[in-house]
Amino acid sequence: MTQLKPVIERVPFGDHFDYPADLPLTPYEQDRRELLARYSHFARERGHEITGYLIQPPGSEEQLVVELFNATTSQLVVTCATLQRDNGGVGGVWYAIGTLADLARFLPPHVRSVLVLPAEPDDDLGGLFALRSITPVWPVDDSIAFTNPQQQARINDPLIYPNGEPSL
């Protein structure tokens, strides 16, 4: 009998990765996993519940892996260890966007897509993320913190005083 619905299994974060277990880790994959671990630590420090999922699409033998899902904020999180669109076939922004689109098909429509990057994207990539309804986030210096375009806009906005400038 053909499977009509996806089979979705919740699994602990860090138990499954979207990378073949029988292959040695590439430098890109090592960097990506470090970024994934750093972001999960950031979210957990804020009291967020982090988990993963295994998804068996209907009629497919392949199992899809959601490495990180923030259950507190309903965010599907994918990491990309480069700002290059195509990283020589080893991953890149295009691959990460495709991964988000593929996985999001099996999750409720209110789930938000988050792409964790190693640094702030340029305006062109930012426009691509906005077009695809993806929130990019990146680390702040060497701290545990991460930021996103909305937080950066608040930081860069000049202070507005409704009653005029305060006296010194």
Question: Strand tally, please?
Answer: 7
Give me the strand/helix succession: EHEEEHEHEEH
Distance between the termini: 77 Å
Mean pLDDT, to the nearest integer, reads 87
Strand arrangement across the biggest beta sheet: 1-2-3-4-5-6-7
Structural class: alpha/beta
The tally of helices reads 4
Could you tell me the radius of gyration in angstroms?
18 Å
Shape: globular
- Percentage of helical residues? 25-40%
Low-confidence region ranges: 158-162
Percent range for β-strand residues: 15-25%
Which sheet architecture does the biggest sheet show?
Answer: 7 strands, mixed
Structural features, described:
The longest helix is centred in the N-terminal third of the chain and has 19 residues, at 27-45. The radius of gyration is 18 Å and the shape is globular. Mean pLDDT is 87; it is low at 158-162. It has helices spanning 27-45, 93-104, 123-131, 149-156; strands at 7-11, 50-56, 64-70, 75-79, 112-116, 134-139, 146-147. Strand 6 and strand 7 form a beta hairpin. By secondary structure, it is α/β, with parallel strands linked by helices. Helix content is 29%, strand content 22%. Strands 1-2-3-4-5-6-7 form a 7-stranded mixed beta sheet, sandwiched between helices.
Any key phrases for this structure?
alpha/beta, 4 helices, 29% helix, globular
Short structural description:
The protein contains four helices and seven strands; from the N terminus they run βαβββαβαββα.
